[in-house]
Amino acid sequence: MTLASSVKPRALGLARYRGEFPIFRDRVYLNTCSLGALGERARRKVAEFLDVWQSRGASAWYDVWWEALGDLRARYGRIVNAAPGEIALAPSISAALSGVAESLDYRRRPKVVITSLDFPTVAYQWLAKVPGGVELVVVESPDTISVPVDAIARAVDDRTALVVTSHVYFTTGAIQDIKRVAEVAHARGALCLIDAYQSVGQIPVDVQDAGVDALVAGGLKWLLGGPGVVFLYVREAVARRLEPRISGWFGQREQFAFDPRALTLHDDARRFEMGTPSLAAIYAQLGGLEYIEEIGVPRIREVTAALTEDLIATVRAAGFTPKVAAEPERRSAIVMIPMPDPAAAVRHLAAGGVIADSRPGHVRFSPFFYNVQDDHVRATERLASQPAH
Length: 389
Fold this sequence. Notes:
389 residues, alpha/beta, Aspartate Aminotransferase, domain 1, Aspartate Aminotransferase, domain 2, seven-stranded mixed β-sheet, 12 strands, disordered N terminus
């Protein structure tokens, strides 16, 4: 008897949305951490943008499209409990990080503290500045799953400009206590920036309660908006005192003055914006956010956490040893399964209709609210059927 034949179809409360994501018609999709599944609402919003483009051309900029940008800033803000003026739009996390990185004075405080488990984009941003005098300090993980805040604290001193780390580590799915990280940074006069690309949308995030100075996240993953749009939150008091040394016309308060002799930045987080946003991406994100807002992140967290625990139990029952945080409350919807050849395993999964991803040494499954428990059974059976297993 196979696992699939021994388990009846089961869902955990939000599977009614599954029909709005066509990929499930012929695939098991467990890869939201790489790219959220395309929902019909996001597709319809992109079609709406194309219709306006076709019928109105550039004249739509001055009302419809301008309003869409403001709408997205406000809705991103509500997701993380920030004011619209504390939100800047960017095309990628790299661009958003650059705005902050190019705003800091490293002469008196040359140190930037990160961890070994952060996505490399974080490290690359400041490694590129090492020749200019920046000192990048990488705090190691003692168990390769998470990084103790006390270890981060030991790396922070009066020469530290910034502490940057992840809310959820992409390498293991472990959740970091970002409130304590912010306290550690502020105790030594440093700023705290959080990479929340892996968390916002699947885990409640409140930037006011956490006390972070800046945070980045976006549409690619758990916000179901696809690539090409992210946001940068910068606390109002911090945004006013930082002046980015890279800029573009969307960062200018007098944007339509077209004055090449004056650089007058917005008074709020929009000063970190650069070039013209991708409107197709903006509209896709507006559609994707409809799901997140309608369900609510707390409910998404409740259902997705239950799915995650079921997935862990399923792969363990099949003989695998997932690499996850020890405590369930510190686990996100990212389940890493050690494999000798992860890329080959992912190809084997795909050939059987299961979409997952690989990271060094691991196959990565990432369930979301639109998954059902039988997805876990099918994916695990397929993984176990790989000849080398």
